Amino acid sequence: MRYSAFQILKQGLTGNKGWQPVWRNPEPKAAYDVIIIGGGGHGLATAYYLAKNHGLSNIAVVERGYLGGGNVGRNTTIVRANYHLNGNSEFYSHSLKLWEGLEQELNYNAMMSQRGVINLCHSDGQYDFFARRANLIRAQGDDAELLDRAGVQKHAPFLNFQNERFPIRGGLLQKRGGTARHDAVAWGFARGADMRGVDLIQNCEVTGIDIEAGRVVGVQTTRGAIKAKKVGMAVAGRSSQVGQMAGLRLPIESHVLQAFVTEGLKPIIPGVVTFGMGHFYISQSDKGGLVFGGDIDMYNSYAARGNMPIMEHVMEAGMAMMPAIGKARVLRGWGGIVDMTMDGSPIIDKTPVDGLFFNGGWNYGGFKATPASGWCYAHLIATGNHSEYATKLLMNRFETGHVLDEEGTGAHPNKH
Ligand SMILES: Cc1cc2nc3c(=O)[nH]c(=O)nc-3n(C[C@H](O)[C@H](O)[C@H](O)COP(=O)(O)OP(=O)(O)OC[C@H]3O[C@@H](n4cnc5c(N)ncnc54)[C@H](O)[C@@H]3O)c2cc1C
Question: Is the model's pTM score more than 0.85?
Fold first, then answer.
Protein backbone atom coordinates (compact mmCIF):
# COMPACT_ATOMS: atom_id res chain seq x y z
CA MET A 1 0.00 0.00 0.00
CA ARG A 2 1.47 3.36 -1.02
CA TYR A 3 1.00 6.21 1.43
CA SER A 4 -0.30 9.47 -0.01
CA ALA A 5 -2.54 12.42 0.77
CA PHE A 6 -5.24 10.69 -1.29
CA GLN A 7 -4.88 7.52 0.82
CA ILE A 8 -5.25 9.52 4.09
CA LEU A 9 -8.38 11.17 2.72
CA LYS A 10 -9.84 7.89 1.48
CA GLN A 11 -9.14 6.04 4.74
CA GLY A 12 -10.41 8.99 6.77
CA LEU A 13 -13.70 8.95 4.90
CA THR A 14 -14.10 5.16 5.18
CA GLY A 15 -13.49 4.72 8.92
CA ASN A 16 -9.75 3.95 8.68
CA LYS A 17 -10.59 0.28 8.08
CA GLY A 18 -8.45 -0.22 4.96
CA TRP A 19 -4.93 0.29 6.37
CA GLN A 20 -2.80 -2.81 5.90
CA PRO A 21 -0.11 -4.12 8.28
CA VAL A 22 3.18 -2.38 7.54
CA TRP A 23 5.03 -5.69 7.15
CA ARG A 24 4.23 -9.41 7.14
CA ASN A 25 5.11 -11.65 10.07
CA PRO A 26 6.47 -14.77 8.32
CA GLU A 27 7.69 -18.04 9.80
CA PRO A 28 11.41 -18.61 9.14
CA LYS A 29 12.13 -20.71 6.03
CA ALA A 30 14.65 -23.58 6.14
CA ALA A 31 17.21 -21.70 4.03
CA TYR A 32 18.00 -18.25 2.66
CA ASP A 33 20.61 -16.76 0.35
CA VAL A 34 21.43 -14.12 2.96
CA ILE A 35 20.64 -13.85 6.66
CA ILE A 36 21.16 -10.53 8.41
CA ILE A 37 21.47 -10.87 12.20
CA GLY A 38 19.91 -7.83 13.91
CA GLY A 39 16.75 -5.90 13.07
CA GLY A 40 18.07 -2.46 14.01
CA GLY A 41 18.51 0.41 11.58
CA HIS A 42 21.62 -1.03 9.96
CA GLY A 43 20.31 -4.59 9.52
CA LEU A 44 17.04 -3.37 8.02
CA ALA A 45 18.74 -0.86 5.73
CA THR A 46 21.13 -3.59 4.56
CA ALA A 47 18.26 -5.93 3.69
CA TYR A 48 16.50 -3.08 1.89
CA TYR A 49 19.51 -2.18 -0.27
CA LEU A 50 20.34 -5.87 -0.92
CA ALA A 51 16.88 -6.15 -2.45
CA LYS A 52 16.73 -2.77 -4.11
CA ASN A 53 20.28 -2.26 -5.40
CA HIS A 54 21.27 -5.88 -5.99
CA GLY A 55 18.01 -7.61 -6.86
CA LEU A 56 18.22 -10.21 -4.07
CA SER A 57 15.02 -11.21 -2.30
CA ASN A 58 15.65 -14.56 -0.62
CA ILE A 59 16.79 -12.72 2.52
CA ALA A 60 15.85 -12.87 6.20
CA VAL A 61 16.50 -10.36 8.96
CA VAL A 62 16.46 -12.20 12.29
CA GLU A 63 15.88 -10.10 15.37
CA ARG A 64 16.02 -11.34 18.97
CA GLY A 65 13.38 -8.83 20.18
CA TYR A 66 11.21 -6.52 18.11
CA LEU A 67 12.25 -4.45 15.10
CA GLY A 68 13.78 -1.16 16.21
CA GLY A 69 13.94 -2.10 19.90
CA GLY A 70 17.72 -1.56 20.06
CA ASN A 71 19.77 1.60 19.66
CA VAL A 72 17.93 2.71 16.56
CA GLY A 73 14.94 3.43 18.80
CA ARG A 74 17.01 4.81 21.69
CA ASN A 75 19.22 7.44 20.11
CA THR A 76 18.95 11.21 20.12
CA THR A 77 18.21 11.28 16.36
CA ILE A 78 21.03 13.56 15.21
CA VAL A 79 22.02 13.43 11.57
CA ARG A 80 25.11 15.25 10.23
CA ALA A 81 28.09 14.90 7.89
CA ASN A 82 30.73 17.03 9.59
CA TYR A 83 33.55 14.49 9.77
CA HIS A 84 36.95 15.52 8.50
CA LEU A 85 39.10 12.40 8.08
CA ASN A 86 39.27 10.61 4.74
CA GLY A 87 37.53 7.32 5.27
CA ASN A 88 34.82 8.79 7.45
CA SER A 89 34.05 11.95 5.48
CA GLU A 90 33.07 10.35 2.15
CA PHE A 91 31.01 7.73 4.01
CA TYR A 92 29.00 10.21 6.12
CA SER A 93 28.70 12.56 3.15
CA HIS A 94 27.06 9.76 1.15
CA SER A 95 24.82 9.02 4.11
CA LEU A 96 23.54 12.60 4.37
CA LYS A 97 22.77 12.62 0.65
CA LEU A 98 20.77 9.41 1.08
CA TRP A 99 18.94 10.93 4.07
CA GLU A 100 17.91 13.89 1.94
CA GLY A 101 15.94 11.66 -0.44
CA LEU A 102 15.01 8.90 2.00
CA GLU A 103 11.39 9.75 2.73
CA GLN A 104 10.49 9.93 -0.95
CA GLU A 105 12.45 6.76 -1.65
CA LEU A 106 10.82 4.79 1.20
CA ASN A 107 7.40 6.47 0.83
CA TYR A 108 7.52 6.85 4.60
CA ASN A 109 7.59 9.93 6.82
CA ALA A 110 10.85 9.75 8.76
CA MET A 111 10.42 13.37 9.92
CA MET A 112 13.81 14.37 8.52
CA SER A 113 14.33 17.93 9.69
CA GLN A 114 17.46 19.77 8.49
CA ARG A 115 17.46 22.40 11.22
CA GLY A 116 21.24 22.65 11.52
CA VAL A 117 23.88 21.33 13.89
CA ILE A 118 26.19 23.77 15.65
CA ASN A 119 29.34 22.71 17.55
CA LEU A 120 30.53 25.34 20.04
CA CYS A 121 34.17 26.17 20.64
CA HIS A 122 35.61 27.96 23.64
CA SER A 123 39.24 28.84 22.91
CA ASP A 124 41.42 30.21 20.11
CA GLY A 125 42.95 26.75 19.65
CA GLN A 126 39.55 25.12 19.23
CA TYR A 127 38.49 27.91 16.86
CA ASP A 128 41.56 27.34 14.66
CA PHE A 129 40.86 23.63 14.58
CA PHE A 130 37.23 24.30 13.60
CA ALA A 131 38.45 26.53 10.73
CA ARG A 132 40.56 23.64 9.44
CA ARG A 133 37.73 21.17 9.97
CA ALA A 134 35.28 23.43 8.14
CA ASN A 135 37.67 23.61 5.16
CA LEU A 136 38.04 19.83 5.08
CA ILE A 137 34.25 19.34 5.26
CA ARG A 138 33.74 21.82 2.40
CA ALA A 139 36.51 20.18 0.37
CA GLN A 140 34.54 16.95 0.70
CA GLY A 141 31.54 18.75 -0.85
CA ASP A 142 29.47 19.23 2.30
CA ASP A 143 28.44 22.48 3.94
CA ALA A 144 30.15 24.04 6.96
CA GLU A 145 30.14 27.61 8.27
CA LEU A 146 32.51 29.01 10.84
CA LEU A 147 30.67 31.42 13.16
CA ASP A 148 32.27 33.96 15.45
CA ARG A 149 30.80 34.70 18.88
CA ALA A 150 28.26 37.19 17.50
CA GLY A 151 27.25 34.66 14.83
CA VAL A 152 26.58 32.03 17.50
CA GLN A 153 24.63 34.56 19.58
CA LYS A 154 22.41 35.34 16.60
CA HIS A 155 21.82 31.66 15.94
CA ALA A 156 21.36 30.54 19.57
CA PRO A 157 20.72 33.51 21.90
CA PHE A 158 19.56 31.20 24.72
CA LEU A 159 23.14 29.99 25.39
CA ASN A 160 25.21 31.26 28.31
CA PHE A 161 27.26 34.18 26.94
CA GLN A 162 28.13 35.35 30.47
CA ASN A 163 30.06 32.20 31.35
CA GLU A 164 33.62 33.34 32.09
CA ARG A 165 34.92 29.86 32.78
CA PHE A 166 33.85 28.48 29.38
CA PRO A 167 33.43 31.59 27.17
CA ILE A 168 31.82 30.89 23.79
CA ARG A 169 34.47 31.76 21.17
CA GLY A 170 32.54 30.62 18.08
CA GLY A 171 30.94 27.65 16.42
CA LEU A 172 30.91 25.34 13.45
CA LEU A 173 27.50 25.23 11.80
CA GLN A 174 26.28 22.61 9.36
CA LYS A 175 22.89 23.73 8.11
CA ARG A 176 22.13 20.45 6.31
CA GLY A 177 22.48 18.56 9.60
CA GLY A 178 19.49 18.06 11.89
CA THR A 179 17.29 15.31 13.25
CA ALA A 180 15.04 12.49 11.99
CA ARG A 181 12.51 10.38 13.86
CA HIS A 182 14.57 7.36 14.86
CA ASP A 183 12.05 4.52 14.96
CA ALA A 184 10.27 5.74 11.84
CA VAL A 185 13.57 5.19 10.02
CA ALA A 186 13.62 1.57 11.18
CA TRP A 187 9.96 1.11 10.24
CA GLY A 188 10.47 2.74 6.83
CA PHE A 189 13.40 0.47 5.94
CA ALA A 190 11.50 -2.55 7.34
CA ARG A 191 8.48 -1.78 5.18
CA GLY A 192 10.64 -1.18 2.11
CA ALA A 193 12.49 -4.48 2.62
CA ASP A 194 9.28 -6.42 3.29
CA MET A 195 7.71 -5.01 0.12
CA ARG A 196 10.69 -6.42 -1.81
CA GLY A 197 10.18 -9.92 -0.37
CA VAL A 198 12.58 -9.85 2.62
CA ASP A 199 11.39 -11.96 5.60
CA LEU A 200 11.55 -9.96 8.83
CA ILE A 201 11.61 -12.48 11.67
CA GLN A 202 11.15 -11.09 15.17
CA ASN A 203 11.56 -12.84 18.54
CA CYS A 204 14.26 -14.99 16.97
CA GLU A 205 17.62 -14.82 18.72
CA VAL A 206 20.70 -16.16 16.98
CA THR A 207 22.43 -18.48 19.44
CA GLY A 208 25.11 -19.97 17.18
CA ILE A 209 26.80 -19.54 13.81
CA ASP A 210 27.33 -22.73 11.81
CA ILE A 211 30.66 -22.98 10.03
CA GLU A 212 31.90 -25.89 7.90
CA ALA A 213 35.42 -26.01 6.47
CA GLY A 214 35.94 -22.31 7.13
CA ARG A 215 32.68 -21.27 5.45
CA VAL A 216 29.46 -20.10 7.04
CA VAL A 217 26.50 -22.41 6.30
CA GLY A 218 23.77 -21.04 8.56
CA VAL A 219 22.73 -19.97 12.03
CA GLN A 220 21.18 -21.58 15.10
CA THR A 221 18.27 -19.63 16.52
CA THR A 222 15.69 -19.86 19.27
CA ARG A 223 13.26 -20.78 16.46
CA GLY A 224 15.45 -23.52 15.01
CA ALA A 225 18.38 -23.83 12.61
CA ILE A 226 18.30 -21.78 9.40
CA LYS A 227 20.69 -22.40 6.52
CA ALA A 228 22.27 -19.52 4.63
CA LYS A 229 24.86 -18.99 1.90
CA LYS A 230 25.91 -15.68 3.44
CA VAL A 231 25.43 -14.21 6.92
CA GLY A 232 25.84 -10.54 7.90
CA MET A 233 26.13 -9.38 11.50
CA ALA A 234 24.51 -6.03 12.37
CA VAL A 235 24.01 -6.35 16.12
CA ALA A 236 25.62 -3.11 17.38
CA GLY A 237 26.12 -3.43 21.17
CA ARG A 238 26.03 -7.23 21.00
CA SER A 239 28.83 -7.45 18.39
CA SER A 240 31.39 -9.09 20.68
CA GLN A 241 28.93 -11.75 21.84
CA VAL A 242 27.70 -12.65 18.36
CA GLY A 243 31.25 -12.45 16.99
CA GLN A 244 32.31 -14.96 19.62
CA MET A 245 29.80 -17.44 18.15
CA ALA A 246 32.07 -17.55 15.08
CA GLY A 247 35.27 -17.54 17.14
CA LEU A 248 35.97 -13.86 16.41
CA ARG A 249 37.57 -11.53 18.94
CA LEU A 250 36.60 -8.03 17.78
CA PRO A 251 38.26 -4.67 18.55
CA ILE A 252 35.02 -3.53 20.18
CA GLU A 253 33.84 -2.81 23.73
CA SER A 254 30.20 -2.48 24.81
CA HIS A 255 29.29 0.54 26.95
CA VAL A 256 26.05 2.17 28.10
CA LEU A 257 25.19 5.51 26.53
CA GLN A 258 22.43 7.47 28.24
CA ALA A 259 20.02 10.16 27.01
CA PHE A 260 17.29 12.28 28.61
CA VAL A 261 14.15 14.17 27.67
CA THR A 262 12.32 16.96 29.48
CA GLU A 263 8.64 17.86 29.60
CA GLY A 264 7.31 19.48 26.41
CA LEU A 265 8.16 23.18 26.07
CA LYS A 266 7.42 25.86 23.50
CA PRO A 267 9.99 25.94 20.66
CA ILE A 268 13.28 27.40 21.88
CA ILE A 269 16.12 25.43 20.28
CA PRO A 270 16.22 25.72 16.49
CA GLY A 271 18.52 22.78 15.77
CA VAL A 272 21.20 20.77 17.53
CA VAL A 273 23.81 22.42 19.77
CA THR A 274 26.90 20.67 21.14
CA PHE A 275 29.05 21.98 24.00
CA GLY A 276 32.80 22.19 23.46
CA MET A 277 33.97 22.02 27.08
CA GLY A 278 32.31 18.82 28.19
CA HIS A 279 30.33 16.09 26.55
CA PHE A 280 26.83 17.57 26.17
CA TYR A 281 24.48 18.08 23.24
CA ILE A 282 20.86 19.11 22.94
CA SER A 283 17.99 19.49 20.50
CA GLN A 284 14.21 19.85 20.82
CA SER A 285 11.82 17.19 19.65
CA ASP A 286 8.74 17.91 17.58
CA LYS A 287 6.67 17.32 20.73
CA GLY A 288 8.67 20.06 22.49
CA GLY A 289 10.81 17.94 24.84
CA LEU A 290 14.45 18.95 25.18
CA VAL A 291 16.43 15.87 24.15
CA PHE A 292 19.98 15.72 25.44
CA GLY A 293 22.87 13.45 26.30
CA GLY A 294 26.58 13.23 26.87
CA ASP A 295 29.32 10.70 27.36
CA ILE A 296 29.24 6.91 27.73
CA ASP A 297 29.19 5.40 31.22
CA MET A 298 32.82 4.55 31.82
CA TYR A 299 32.53 0.81 32.30
CA ASN A 300 31.71 -2.15 30.06
CA SER A 301 28.12 -3.30 30.30
CA TYR A 302 25.23 -5.00 28.51
CA ALA A 303 22.61 -3.27 30.68
CA ALA A 304 20.49 -0.84 28.69
CA ARG A 305 20.37 1.68 31.55
CA GLY A 306 23.04 3.86 33.07
CA ASN A 307 24.28 5.26 36.35
CA MET A 308 24.26 8.50 38.35
CA PRO A 309 27.80 9.89 37.82
CA ILE A 310 27.27 10.38 34.07
CA MET A 311 23.77 11.79 34.67
CA GLU A 312 25.33 14.34 37.01
CA HIS A 313 28.05 15.18 34.48
CA VAL A 314 25.49 15.66 31.69
CA MET A 315 23.26 17.91 33.85
CA GLU A 316 26.27 19.99 34.97
CA ALA A 317 27.48 20.48 31.40
CA GLY A 318 23.93 21.41 30.37
CA MET A 319 23.73 24.03 33.12
CA ALA A 320 27.10 25.49 32.08
CA MET A 321 26.07 25.81 28.44
CA MET A 322 22.44 26.80 28.83
CA PRO A 323 21.43 27.68 32.43
CA ALA A 324 17.75 28.09 31.49
CA ILE A 325 17.58 24.31 31.17
CA GLY A 326 17.61 24.16 34.99
CA LYS A 327 13.95 25.19 34.99
CA ALA A 328 12.86 22.25 32.82
CA ARG A 329 11.81 18.99 34.45
CA VAL A 330 13.43 15.81 33.17
CA LEU A 331 10.74 13.29 32.28
CA ARG A 332 12.80 10.25 31.33
CA GLY A 333 16.30 8.92 30.99
CA TRP A 334 17.31 5.72 29.21
CA GLY A 335 20.33 3.90 27.91
CA GLY A 336 21.49 1.87 24.93
CA ILE A 337 24.41 -0.50 24.56
CA VAL A 338 26.86 1.08 22.15
CA ASP A 339 29.59 -0.73 20.26
CA MET A 340 32.76 1.28 20.83
CA THR A 341 35.81 0.73 18.63
CA MET A 342 39.25 1.76 19.79
CA ASP A 343 39.45 4.69 17.34
CA GLY A 344 35.81 5.79 17.41
CA SER A 345 35.14 4.87 13.76
CA PRO A 346 33.05 2.01 12.39
CA ILE A 347 33.83 -1.27 10.64
CA ILE A 348 32.13 -2.69 7.51
CA ASP A 349 34.18 -5.65 6.43
CA LYS A 350 34.55 -9.34 5.63
CA THR A 351 35.63 -11.69 8.42
CA PRO A 352 38.16 -14.56 8.29
CA VAL A 353 35.14 -16.91 7.90
CA ASP A 354 34.05 -17.21 4.23
CA GLY A 355 30.58 -15.77 3.67
CA LEU A 356 30.40 -14.14 7.12
CA PHE A 357 30.41 -10.33 7.18
CA PHE A 358 30.71 -7.76 9.93
CA ASN A 359 29.05 -4.36 10.43
CA GLY A 360 29.55 -2.63 13.77
CA GLY A 361 31.59 -0.27 15.89
CA TRP A 362 29.07 2.55 15.54
CA ASN A 363 30.05 4.20 18.81
CA TYR A 364 27.94 7.26 19.67
CA GLY A 365 27.05 7.96 16.08
CA GLY A 366 25.56 5.14 14.04
CA PHE A 367 22.08 6.57 13.56
CA LYS A 368 23.24 9.14 11.02
CA ALA A 369 25.13 6.34 9.27
CA THR A 370 22.07 4.12 8.83
CA PRO A 371 21.39 4.64 5.09
CA ALA A 372 25.07 4.58 3.99
CA SER A 373 25.83 1.65 6.27
CA GLY A 374 23.02 -0.37 4.70
CA TRP A 375 24.08 0.74 1.22
CA CYS A 376 27.78 -0.14 1.67
CA TYR A 377 27.20 -3.36 3.65
CA ALA A 378 24.74 -4.60 1.00
CA HIS A 379 27.34 -3.84 -1.67
CA LEU A 380 29.98 -5.85 0.20
CA ILE A 381 27.67 -8.81 0.88
CA ALA A 382 26.30 -8.92 -2.67
CA THR A 383 29.52 -8.34 -4.64
CA GLY A 384 32.33 -9.28 -2.25
CA ASN A 385 33.90 -5.86 -2.91
CA HIS A 386 34.00 -2.77 -0.72
CA SER A 387 31.77 0.09 -1.78
CA GLU A 388 33.62 3.21 -2.94
CA TYR A 389 32.21 5.02 0.13
CA ALA A 390 33.59 2.53 2.67
CA THR A 391 37.07 1.53 1.50
CA LYS A 392 38.74 2.48 4.79
CA LEU A 393 36.27 1.14 7.36
CA LEU A 394 38.25 -2.08 7.63
CA MET A 395 39.02 -4.35 10.55
CA ASN A 396 42.75 -4.60 9.84
CA ARG A 397 43.37 -0.92 10.58
CA PHE A 398 43.88 -1.96 14.18
CA GLU A 399 46.67 -4.31 13.06
CA THR A 400 48.35 -1.91 10.66
CA GLY A 401 47.90 1.21 12.80
CA HIS A 402 45.95 3.12 10.11
CA VAL A 403 43.32 4.12 12.65
CA LEU A 404 40.59 6.69 11.92
CA ASP A 405 40.91 8.71 15.10
CA GLU A 406 38.39 11.42 14.20
CA GLU A 407 38.42 13.04 17.64
CA GLY A 408 42.18 13.00 17.94
CA THR A 409 41.91 11.69 21.48
CA GLY A 410 43.78 8.43 21.11
CA ALA A 411 42.89 4.82 20.68
CA HIS A 412 40.61 4.23 23.66
CA PRO A 413 36.80 4.34 23.96
CA ASN A 414 36.92 6.05 27.39
CA LYS A 415 38.12 9.27 25.91
CA HIS A 416 37.40 11.94 28.43
C1 LIG B 1 21.40 7.15 24.01
C2 LIG B 1 21.94 7.07 22.62
C3 LIG B 1 22.01 8.21 21.85
C4 LIG B 1 22.49 8.16 20.54
N5 LIG B 1 22.45 9.28 19.78
C6 LIG B 1 22.82 9.24 18.48
C7 LIG B 1 22.66 10.37 17.65
O8 LIG B 1 22.14 11.41 18.07
N9 LIG B 1 23.08 10.29 16.36
C10 LIG B 1 23.65 9.18 15.86
O11 LIG B 1 24.04 9.18 14.70
N12 LIG B 1 23.76 8.04 16.62
C13 LIG B 1 23.36 8.04 17.91
N14 LIG B 1 23.44 6.92 18.69
C15 LIG B 1 24.04 5.71 18.13
C16 LIG B 1 23.07 4.90 17.26
O17 LIG B 1 21.82 4.79 17.88
C18 LIG B 1 23.65 3.51 17.01
O19 LIG B 1 25.01 3.62 16.61
C20 LIG B 1 22.93 2.73 15.93
O21 LIG B 1 21.53 2.76 16.15
C22 LIG B 1 23.45 1.28 15.90
O23 LIG B 1 22.99 0.54 14.82
P24 LIG B 1 21.60 -0.26 14.78
O25 LIG B 1 20.53 0.72 14.58
O26 LIG B 1 21.66 -1.33 13.76
O27 LIG B 1 21.60 -0.90 16.24
P28 LIG B 1 20.41 -1.57 17.06
O29 LIG B 1 19.14 -0.86 16.87
O30 LIG B 1 20.92 -1.75 18.46
O31 LIG B 1 20.28 -2.97 16.32
C32 LIG B 1 20.96 -4.16 16.67
C33 LIG B 1 19.90 -5.23 16.79
O34 LIG B 1 20.54 -6.50 16.90
C35 LIG B 1 19.70 -7.30 17.72
N36 LIG B 1 20.47 -8.44 18.21
C37 LIG B 1 21.51 -8.44 19.08
N38 LIG B 1 21.94 -9.70 19.30
C39 LIG B 1 21.17 -10.51 18.53
C40 LIG B 1 21.11 -11.92 18.34
N41 LIG B 1 21.97 -12.75 18.96
N42 LIG B 1 20.18 -12.42 17.48
C43 LIG B 1 19.32 -11.61 16.84
N44 LIG B 1 19.31 -10.24 17.01
C45 LIG B 1 20.23 -9.72 17.84
C46 LIG B 1 19.28 -6.33 18.84
O47 LIG B 1 18.14 -6.79 19.52
C48 LIG B 1 19.05 -5.06 18.05
O49 LIG B 1 17.69 -4.87 17.68
C50 LIG B 1 22.97 6.93 20.01
C51 LIG B 1 22.90 5.77 20.79
C52 LIG B 1 22.38 5.83 22.08
C53 LIG B 1 22.29 4.57 22.89
Answer: yes
CATH topology of domain 114-175+253-341: D-Amino Acid Oxidase; Chain A, domain 2 (3.30.9)
**Beta bridge partners of residue 284, listed in sequence order:** 290
Centre of ligand 1 to C-alpha 401, Å, is 27
CA distances from 113 to 101, 253, 393 (A): 12, 32, 28
Are the C-beta atoms of 195 and 44 separated by less than 8 Å?
Answer: no
Kindly give, in sequence order, each residue whose CB lies less than 8 Å from that of residue 209, ignoring residues fewer than 6 positions away: 216, 219, 220, 231, 242, 245, 246, 353, 356
> What pLDDT does 38 receive?
98
Identify the residue whose C-alpha is closest to ligand 1 atom 19: 366
CA 44 to CA 199: how far, in whole Å? 11
- Cβ(406)–Cβ(342) below 8 Å: no
Query: Whole-number mean pLDDT of the chain?
Result: 96
Buried b (16+ CB within 10 A) or exposed e, 121-138: bbeeebbeebeebbebbe
So where are the chain's domains?
28-77+182-251+343-415, 114-175+253-341
Architecture of domain 28-77+182-251+343-415: 3-Layer(bba) Sandwich (3.50)
What are the distances in angstroms from CA 78 to CA 254, 330, 387? 21, 20, 24
Ligand 1 center to 72 CA (angstroms): 5
Orientation angle between helical segments 370-383 and 182-195, nearest 10 degrees: 30
Q: Where residue 407 falls among pLDDT bands split at 50, 70, 90?
A: confident
Q: Pocket of ligand 1, candidates 46, 66, 174, 235: which has the most ligand atoms within 8 Å of its Cβ, to mutate?
A: 235
User: Both ends of the chain: CA-CA distance in Å?
Assistant: 48
Are 100 and 174 in contact by the 8 Å Cβ rule? The answer is: no
User: What number does the ligand 1 atom closest to the CA of 338 have?
Assistant: 53
pLDDT tens digit string along 345-396? Answer: 999 999 999 999 999 999 999 999 999 999 999 999 999 999 999 999 999 9
